[in-house]
Specification:
The complex is a heterotrimer of chains A (541), B (375) and C (311).
Chain A (H helix, E strand, L loop, with lengths): L6 E10 L2 E11 L4 E5 L6 H8 L7 E6 L2 E3 L4 H6 L2 E4 L11 H6 L10 H15 L14 H14 L4 E5 L7 H16 L3 E6 L2 H7 L2 E6 L2 E7 L6 H9 L10 H23 L23 E10 L7 E9 L3 E5 L6 H8 L7 E6 L2 E2 H6 L7 E4 L14 H9 L4 E2 L2 E2 L1 H15 L15 H14 L4 E5 L7 H15 L3 E6 L2 H7 L2 E6 L2 E7 L3 H11 L7
Parallel strand pairs in A: 3-8, 3-9, 6-7, 7-8, 13-20, 13-21, 16-19, 19-20
Antiparallel strand pairs in A: 1-2, 1-4, 4-5, 9-10, 11-12, 11-14, 14-15, 17-18, 21-22
Chain B lengths: L3 E6 L7 H23 L4 H13 L2 H26 L7 H18 L5 H30 L3 H21 L28 H7 L3 H11 L5 H18 L1 H11 L1 H6 L4 H28 L10 H11 L4 H25 L5 H16 L1 H4 E6 L2
Antiparallel strand pairs in B: 1-2
Chain C lengths: L4 H33 L7 H19 L2 H25 L4 H20 L24 H5 L4 H19 L1 H11 L1 H6 L4 H28 L10 H11 L4 H23 L6 H21 L19
Helix pairs in contact in C: 1-6, 1-9, 1-10, 1-11, 2-3, 2-4, 2-9, 2-10, 3-4, 3-9, 6-7, 6-11, 7-9, 10-11, 10-12, 11-12
Classes of the chains: A alpha/beta (541), B mainly alpha (375), C mainly alpha (311).
C-alpha cells in the first residue's frame, strides 16, 4: 500500500473539439502534502482537475486510487473515491443555511433534523478550525466564509483529496492567510491538497511540491525546496523571464496589421452624417458642447444604500483628465453600487456627483452620445454584450445612436465600422456576423473596450477589465486604456493590486462601502499596506 | 468498454432542419389526431383526410383559410413582437375582444358619420382600445413587477366577460328577439369582400370566371391589405429602425439593455401597445367583415392560435404568414371534420396543442446532436 | 346594526362554501408549488386539471367508484406532467411554451373526449360529517361537514411542509430549484429530482382537477376548470413558494369570492357581470398584493431554467 501514491494520473489527455486541453499528463498526489498546480490561463489546470473531480471524462489515460484503477463517470464516483473540489464559483445554495448546504447530498436516513445537522457541522468546523455559523444563511456570508462552507462539505464527506481551484481569487489577503493555515492543518491531518494557482507568492508560501502546466502538458514538477525565489519559479512557469521589456517583439507584428484597421475605423467614423466626435476628425460643434472642465468625475459625500446590499456611504474623490484612479477592494464592498450610480443606472441617496463638471441629473437627462461616458462592465457576457446577437449588433449596443439618423439605423456603415474595429483589435473570429457567444472572453473584451472607446468618452469607468484574460489580452487592454487616458479620466475598479499598480496614478481603497484611504500610486509606504486596507484592518492615516 | 449516447450542443443549426422537423412533427400530429378520432369510434384516416382537404383541398377552401388567416396573422405579428422582447403576452385574445368592443362602440355611437370617417374611425378606435387594454398588463409588469403571463390571461377572461355584459345588456339589438347580438353595422362600416361578383359581371367578365373566382376568394375580405401593410411595417421597423434594434437587443439581454441606456420599460409598453392595436384591428375586421355586427361568436381563440403561430414561426414575419395560413387551414379543416364526423370544436385546440408539443420536442434535434460515446 | 345582520348570516354558508371551493385550488396550488420549488415552471396546470377532471369523471362513471376516479385523475395529470418533463428535461424545450402547449392541448383534449358525456351525472364524493367535531357550533359546519377530500386537504399542507423541510428529498428538491449545479456537485442528479417533483406535483394537480369533477360538479360540463389552474399558478406567487402561505392565499381567495356571491344573492348591488369576472379580478389582486411586497419574493433562483444536457 505504501508504495502507491493516494492518486496517480497516467497519460491523461482531453480534447475539446480540436483544442487540446490536456495531453499525456502524469501526476501523483500524496496524502499529507500540498501540491500546487501552476500555469497561465488556459494551460489546462482546471480541465485536469475537473477530470479528477469526475466532472469531465478523459479521452485517454487512467486514474488510480491507491493503486487501483478507477473510472469517474460523475462527481459522485469521485466523491466515493474520496476526491472533492472547491470550485472557483462556489456550488452553494444561497437561500439555505450553512448546515443544509454542508449536508446536501450526504448519505443518511430519509428524515433530517435541523438541530442534529447544526451540531454536526459545528463539530466539524471546530475540528478543522473553519469558523462559520451553521445556522447562517449562505447568502449573508462573506466570500471567505462561503469558501469555508465548501471545504466543510468535502470534509463532511470524509474526502481525502481536496482540490482548490484558484481559491484566493475572491479572498482578502487576510482571508487568504487563514485559508493557507487551514490547508496546512488539513494536510497535517493526512489530507492530500491540490492547489491550482497562477499567483507565485502563494505557491511559494504554501506548497510542498509544484507541478507546472503549459499548453496542456506537465512541463516541470519539483519540490518546493528546489526553487529559491519567485523569479526562478516564474522562469520555470513561463519558460522565460517574467518581466519583459515594454514594446517587445510580440506586439510589433500586430501594430502594422492594426494600422490598417485603425485607418478604416477613422474613415468610417469621419463619414458619419452626425460626426461630431472629437478625435475622429468630424465636424465638431453641431452637438451639445461638453464643457472643457478639467475635472472629469467628482464625487462628494456620495452615498447610496444598495437593494439588499450594504451599498456605500460618503465616498468622495475626483478624477481629472489624464488621470487613472484605481478603486481597489475585494468584490462586494460597495464597488458595484458605486459604479451603477456613476453610470446613471441607480440614484444616489445623498451627496453630490458631477460628471464632466455637470450635476449627474443634468448630465444623464441629456446624455451626450459622444465624448461623454464609456463604461466597461465586469460581467462581459451578462451585462456588456448579447451572446445571441451578431458582433455588429453587439457593436451597436452602445454605439447605436452614432449610427442612426432620424430613428433609422445605418446598418451598412455599422458593419463597416465593426469590420474595421475587428481588424484594429485583432478580434477572432473576424466575421462580424459571428454571434457574441462564439467569442472567447479576451476577444469579447477587446470588442467591448473598442466599442466603448469609440465615442472618445472623456470619462471612462472600467470594472475589472482584465479579469480572466491571458497575458497578451491583458497587455492589450492596458495599452488601450493608457492611450485613452490622454484624452479622458479613468475610474478603474479592480480587485487586483497588480493591475492597479500597473495603470493607476492614484489609488483608493474601499472596504464595506467606505473609502479607507486615497493616495498616489507613487507613495510606496501606502502601497505596501493596500492588502491590509482591503481587509479593513489598517487605519486611514 | 462502455458506450452510450452523449448530447452535444450544435453551434450552427442544421440546414433545412426546421423544415424537416416541422414536417415530421406535423405528420406525427396528424397521426395522433387520427388515433384520437379512432378512440371516439370515428374513422381516423377519413378524419385526417377531411382535416387536410377542408383547409387546402378544394377551390373554396382557400378563401375560407385566408379569411381565418387574417386575424391570426395580425395577432401573431403583435405577439411575436412582444416575444422578441421576452414579454410573454398571452393576451392577444383579450386585446382582440376589447378592440372589437372599441370599434363597435364607435360604429354604434357615430352610425351617422359618412363612410370615409366611419370606417377609419372604427379601425382606429379598435386599435386604441386593444392597445390600451394591452398596456394595462405592460404597466402592471413594469410598475409592480407583476407576471405578465397571468395578468394577460386574466385580462382575456375579463375582456370576454365585458363582451358578454355588453352584448347581453346595453348593446343588445332590441329587434333581435333576445338573441345576444348588436344591431347590424351601417353599410359604410362593413369591410367589403375581395371578390365582388356583381361588379366584375358588370365589368364584362365571363360568368364562368366570375364563378370560379367567387369560389376561390370566398369570404376573404380587404382586411388582407392591413396584413400586408402591417407585415411590411413590422419588418421594416425591426430591421431598419433604431427602436427595432433596441427591441431585439433588449429581448436578447435585458441587463445589457439597461446598461446600454435602452429605455426598457418604454419598449415594453410600446410593444404591448402595438400588439394590442394589431389584435384590436384583427377583432374589428373580423366583426365588421364576416358578421357585420357584434356577436359572442367573435371569440374563437384566434389569440391563442396566434401565440402558437408566433412560436412556430420563431418570430419571423414571413414565417408568421406561412404558419398563420397553415393553422388557419387546419381550423377550416376541423370545421369540416366537425360537420362530417360530429366531433366537438375543441378538436382544433387539441390539434394545435399537439403540433406545438411535437415541434417543441423536435426542436431539440435542431439545437443538439447525439453522439456516440466511446471509451 | 340590523342592516348588517343578513351579511353576518351569509358569512357561515359563505365560509362553508369557501372551504369546499378552495379545496381543488389548494391541491393544484400545492402541486404547482412542489414543481416550482424544484425549479420547473409548469404553466400547464389548467390543462392538467382538465385532463385530471375528465379522467376522474370517466373513472368514476365507468366503475362507480369515486376513489378509482380520484386515482385516474391524479395519474392522468401526472402523465401530462411527465410530458412536460419530456419536453423540458429531455428535449430542452422552453418551459413557458411547453406549459402553454400543455394547457392548450389538455383543455382541448378533455373537452373533445368529454363531449359525449356532457351533463351526465356521477355519484362522486358527498359530504361526510366527522363524528363529534361536526357538532362543534360554527366551526363544525364549516370545517367538518365536508367531503373526505376536503379533510385530506387539511393534512396535505403539513405533509408537504414536512416533506420539503424535514426530509433529505425535500432538501435536494429545494436546492435543485435554487442551484442545480450545487446539487450535481453534491453527487445528486438534479434531473432526477426534477422528475420526482414533476410527478408528485402533477399528481396533486390531478387531484385538484378530480375534485372538481367528483365533488364540486359531480357531472361533466365543457370547460369544467374554467381558469382555476391559472389561479393556482398565481397563488403560488402570492404564497412566496411556501405551503403555509399557500393555504392562507387559497382560502382568502375562495373566501372573498364565496362571500361576494352570497352577498349578491341577498340583493346587494353587485352587478352579475362583475361577479362573473370576480375570480379573474381576484387573481389579479392576488398577484398585485404579492408584487407590492417587493422583489425579494422567494422565487426559486433557477425557476424556469433548463438543465444543460452537456454537463
Amino acid at each position: 500500500m505504501e508504495d502507491f501514491p493516494l492518486i496517480r494520473l497516467e497519460g491523461i489527455s482531453k480534447y475539446f473539439g480540436k483544442v487540446r486541453a490536456n495531453s499525456h499528463i502524469d501526476l501523483d498526489i500524496r496524502a499529507g502534502r500540498i501540491k500546487a498546480l501552476l500555469g497561465e490561463n488556459g494551460a489546462g489546470k482546471s480541465t485536469l482537475m475537473s477530470i479528477l473531480a469526475g466532472r469531465l471524462e478523459p479521452d485517454t489515460g487512467r486514474i488510480s486510487v491507491e493503486g487501483q484503477i478507477r473510472r469517474f463517470r460523475s462527481p459522485k464516483d469521485a466523491h466515493l473515491a474520496g476526491i472533492g473540489m472547491v470550485y472557483q464559483h462556489f456550488m452553494l445554495v444561497d437561500t439555505m443555511s450553512v448546515a443544509e448546504n454542508v449536508l446536501l447530498g450526504h448519505e443518511g436516513g430519509f428524515m433530517i433534523s435541523p438541530a442534529q445537522m447544526r451540531e454536526r457541522v459545528r463539530k466539524l468546523a471546530e475540528r478543522y478550525g473553519l469558523a462559520v455559523d451553521p445556522t447562517a444563511s449562505v447568502g449573508s456570508l462573506s466570500m471567505g466564509e462561503r469558501q469555508r462552507v465548501e471545504i466543510l462539505k468535502l470534509l463532511c464527506r470524509e474526502c481525502r483529496v481536496l482540490i482548490f481551484d484558484e481559491p484566493t481569487a475572491v479572498l482578502t489577503p487576510v482571508e487568504s492567510e487563514q485559508l493557507f493555515t487551514a490547508m496546512r492543518r488539513m494536510a497535517a491531518q493526512g489530507k492530500a491538497i491540490v492547489f491550482i494557482s497562477h499567483k507565485l507568492p502563494e505557491v511559494l508560501s504554501v506548497a510542498d511540491e509544484v507541478a507546472i502546466l503549459r499548453r496542456g502538458e506537465v512541463v516541470d514538477a519539483f519540490e518546493r525546496s528546489q526553487v529559491p525565489d519567485e523569479a526562478e519559479l516564474a522562469r520555470r512557469m513561463l519558460g522565460r523571464s517574467l518581466f519583459k521589456e515594454p514594446g517587445q517583439a510580440a506586439f510589433t507584428g500586430e501594430t502594422e496589421e492594426s494600422g490598417q484597421g485603425a485607418r478604416d475605423l477613422q474613415q468610417v467614423m469621419s463619414e458619419l452624417p452626425i460626426a461630431r466626435i472629437r478625435g475622429w476628425g468630424g465636424r465638431a460643434g453641431r452637438g451639445r458642447r461638453i464643457a472643457q472642465a478639467d475635472s472629469v468625475l467628482s464625487l462628494d459625500g456620495l452615498s447610496c444604500r444598495g437593494a439588499g446590499t450594504a451599498g456605500f456611504s460618503k465616498v468622495s474623490f475626483a478624477i481629472a483628465k489624464g488621470q487613472i484612479l484605481a478603486l481597489v477592494g475585494v468584490a462586494g464592498n460597495g464597488q458595484k453600487e458605486l459604479v451603477e450610480v456613476i453610470c446613471g443606472l441607480r440614484r444616489p441617496d445623498a451627496g453630490s456627483l458631477k460628471l464632466l463638471g455637470q450635476d449627474y441629473r443634468e448630465f444623464f437627462s441629456d446624455l451626450p452620445e459622444q465624448n461623454g461616458l464609456g463604461y466597461i462592465p465586469e460581467d462581459r457576457r451578462g451585462v456588456a454584450s448579447c451572446p445571441e446577437l451578431s458582433l455588429v449588433d453587439n457593436f451597436l449596443l452602445t454605439a447605436r445612436k452614432l449610427f442612426s439618423h432620424r430613428g433609422l439605423l445605418d446598418r451598412k456603415r455599422a458593419l463597416r465600422a465593426t469590420r474595421a474595429l475587428i481588424a484594429d483589435h485583432n478580434i477572432i473570429p473576424g466575421n462580424p456576423q459571428a454571434r457574441g457567444r462564439e467569442l472567447s472572453g479576451g476577444n469579447l473584451q477587446k470588442l467591448i473596450v473598442g466599442r466603448e472607446l469609440l465615442r472618445n468618452p472623456r470619462c471612462i469607468v472600467a470594472e475589472n477589465p482584465t479579469q480572466g484574460l491571458d497575458v497578451a489580452a491583458t497587455e492589450e487592454v492596458w495599452r488601450r486604456l493608457r492611450v485613452a487616458r490622454e484624452s479622458s479620466g479613468i475610474l478603474l475598479v479592480t480587485g487586483d493590486i497588480a493591475e492597479a499598480l500597473a495603470l493607476a496614478d492614484y489609488i483608493a481603497v474601499i472596504y464595506r462601502g467606505k473609502l479607507v484611504d486615497l493616495f498616489s500610486a507613487a507613495n510606496q509606504e501606502k502601497v505596501d499596506q493596500i492588502g491590509l486596507m482591503m481587509a479593513g484592518s489598517a487605519s486611514a492615516d | 468498454m462502455m458506450s452510450g449516447w452523449r448530447i452535444v450542443s450544435r453551434t450552427e443549426p442544421r440546414e433545412w432542419g426546421s423544415v424537416v422537423i416541422f414536417a415530421a412533427a406535423f405528420a406525427l400530429s396528424l397521426l395522433i389526431c387520427g388515433l384520437l378520432l379512432q378512440v371516439q369510434g370515428k374513422d381516423g384516416a377519413l378524419g385526417v383526410g377531411l382535416l387536410l382537404s377542408g383547409g387546402f383541398g378544394h377551390l373554396y377552401s382557400y378563401g375560407e383559410t385566408l379569411l381565418k388567416a387574417i386575424p391570426i396573422f395580425l395577432c401573431s405579428l403583435g405577439v411575436a413582437l412582444c416575444f422578441r422582447l421576452q414579454i410573454w403576452n398571452i393576451g392577444a385574445e383579450g386585446q382582440y375582444v376589447i378592440g372589437t368592443l372599441g370599434g363597435t362602440w364607435f360604429v354604434l355611437t357615430f352610425a351617422s358619420l359618412p363612410g370615409w370617417l366611419l370606417l377609419p374611425g372604427m379601425l382606429i378606435s379598435a386599435m386604441l382600445a386593444g392597445g390600451f387594454w394591452a398596456c394595462v398588463s405592460a404597466v402592471l409588469r413594469q410598475r409592480f413587477g407583476m407576471n405578465e403571463i397571468i395578468s394577460t390571461l386574466m385580462l382575456n377572461y375579463i375582456g370576454i366577460e365585458i363582451l358578454k355584459y355588453l352584448i347581453y345588456g346595453p348593446w343588445r339589438d332590441p329587434a333581435a328577439m333576445n338573441f345576444p347580438v348588436s344591431p347590424y353595422f351601417s353599410d359604410s362600416a362593413v369591410i367589403a369582400q375581395i371578390w365582388n361578383s356583381s361588379f366584375w359581371l358588370d365589368f364584362g367578365l365571363s360568368e364562368n370566371i366570375v364563378d370560379v373566382m367567387a369560389q376561390l376568394c370566398g369570404r376573404a375580405h380587404w382586411g388582407i391589405l392591413s396584413c400586408l401593410i402591417a407585415g411590411c411595417l413590422c419588418s421594416f421597423f425591426l430591421q431598419k429602425t433604431r427602436l427595432g434594434y433596441e427591441i431585439t437587443a433588449a429581448g436578447s439581454n435585458a441587463k445589457a439593455a439597461r446598461f446600454a441606456g435602452i429605455p426598457y420599460s418604454r419598449l415594453v409598453i410600446l410593444v404591448m401597445f402595438i400588439c394590442g392595436a394589431l389584435a384590436g384591428l384583427a377583432g374589428i375586421q373580423e366583426c365588421s367583415a364576416t358578421l357585420e355586427r357584434l356577436e359572442p361568436h367573435i371569440v374563437v381563440g384566434y389569440g391563442y392560435t396566434a401565440v402558437v403561430v408566433a412560436w412556430l414561426a420563431k418570430l419571423r414575419t414571413v414565417r408568421i404568414a406561412f404558419f398563420a395560413i397553415i393553422l388557419a387551414g387546419l381550423r377550416v379543416g376541423v370545421e369540416n371534420v366537425q360537420l362530417e364526423l360530429q366531433v366537438s370544436n375543441s378538436f382544433a385546440n387539441t390539434l394545435e396543442g399537439i403540433i406545438l408539443i411535437t415541434v417543441l420536442a423536435g426542436q431539440f434535434f435542431n439545437d443538439y446532436s447525439l453522439k456516440r460515446k466511446f471509451s | 346594526m340590523e342592516d348588517f345582520l343578513p351579511y353576518l348570516a351569509v358569512l357561515l354558508p359563505a365560509m362553508t362554501a369557501a372551504i369546499s371551493t378552495g379545496a381543488p385550488i389548494l391541491y393544484a396550488t400545492l402541486g404547482e408549488l412542489v414543481m416550482e420549488r424544484g425549479g420547473v415552471l409548469n404553466l400547464g396546470v389548467e390543462g392538467m386539471m382538465m385532463v385530471g377532471a375528465l379522467a376522474a369523471f370517466l373513472g368514476c362513471y365507468h366503475t362507480g367508484s369515486p376513489w378509482f376516479g380520484l386515482l385516474c385523475g391524479g395519474f392522468s395529470a401526472m402523465l401530462m406532467s411527465m410530458l412536460h418533463g419530456a419536453i423540458c428535461l429531455i428535449f430542452q424545450g422552453s418551459q413557458v411554451v411547453s406549459g402553454l402547449a400543455l394547457t392548450i392541448f389538455g383543455t382541448g383534449l378533455a373537452n373533445y373526449l368529454g363531449t359525449p358525456y356532457i351533463q351526465m351525472k356521477i355519484q362522486g364524493f358527498t359530504a361526510l360529517d366527522v363524528p363529534l367535531l361536526s357538532s362543534i357550533p360554527v366551526l363544525g359546519p364549516i370545517f367538518f361537514q365536508q367531503d373526505v377530500l376536503v379533510y385530506l386537504s387539511y393534512i396535505l399542507p403539513f405533509l408537504l411542509w414536512w416533506l420539503l423541510m424535514r426530509t433529505r428529498f425535500g432538501l435536494a428538491l429545494r436546492a435543485t430549484g435554487e442551484n442545480p449545479a450545487a446539487v450535481r456537485a453534491a453527487g445528486i442528479s438534479p434531473g432526477a429530482v426534477r422528475w420526482a417533483a414533476l410527478m408528485l406535483g402533477g399528481f396533486l394537480v390531478g387531484l385538484g382537477g378530480a375534485y372538481l369533477a367528483l365533488a364540486s360538479m359531480r357531472m361533466w360540463v365543457d370547460n369544467l376548470v374554467s381558469g382555476r389552474g391559472w389561479i393556482a399558478v398565481a397563488l403560488v406567487i402570492f404564497a412566496f413558494w411556501r405551503p403555509g402561505r399557500a393555504v392562507f392565499g387559497v382560502y382568502l381567495f375562495s373566501g372573498i369570492t364565496a362571500y361576494l356571491f352570497r352577498a349578491q344573492a341577498l340583493g346587494v348591488g353587485i352587478p352579475t357581470a362583475f361577479l362573473s369576472m370576480l375570480p379573474y379580478l381576484m387573481t389579479l389582486a392576488v398577484l398585485l398584493a404579492s408584487s407590492l411586497r417587493g422583489k425579494d419574493s422567494g422565487a426559486p433562483a433557477d425557476l424556469a431554467n433548463n438543465l444543460r444536457p452537456e454537463d
